[in-house]
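Input sequence (213 aa), recorded before submission:
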Amino acid sequence: MKDTKQNVVAVIVAHPDDETLWAGGTIISHPSWKWFIISLTRKSDADRSVKFFKALNILRASGTMGDLDDGPEQKPLDKNEVEDTILQLLPSEYYDLVISHHPNGEYTRHLRHEETGRAVINLWHSGKISARELWIFAYEDGDKQYHPRALKTETLYKVLPEKTWQKKYAIIKNTFGFNEKSWEAETTPKEESFRKFTNSDVAMQWSLNFEKQ
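Predicted structure, token format:
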């Protein structure tokens, strides 16, 4: 996708910091794109919500937050609740690109990531989200054997320039406040990877494979 001012992009994530961890380098690398970032949780978290909007300012993005349950028990959410929340938060317009979680998440395992990814695919397939392309985060952690790694075999894979990664890392460390020994800081990928879809039927069939797991 060309780096032009016409590109309108929505990033839909489960938590504040997911946008930076999994796509921060991509966002930083395309300052002329119009970015709108949604976090589906933590709106009422006075600490994380303030940090989220500070991060958006650094990323030159606008955005908003929802307040879906993100308690420690991580009980499954009703899929209609997740989809309705996305539609309530997402401005109703045509997007050149939507970016979101993998239906299996980025590591083993986090229900909110999985639920968000599946909801976005469902909404695109049903026509409730209008977009030309969908990019899905593509990472894996070897079933908790190591920190999440970008998949080199996916449609879109890029090693971030050092300056770009440093800016991304600074958002995680300085803006969100994670210390250098935290999981988040140690995870912050130096490569980013996405699976690209231009056909919602293909995306939906692919997503259904993970619901069987």
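Checked by second reader. The chain is about 40% helix and 25% strand.
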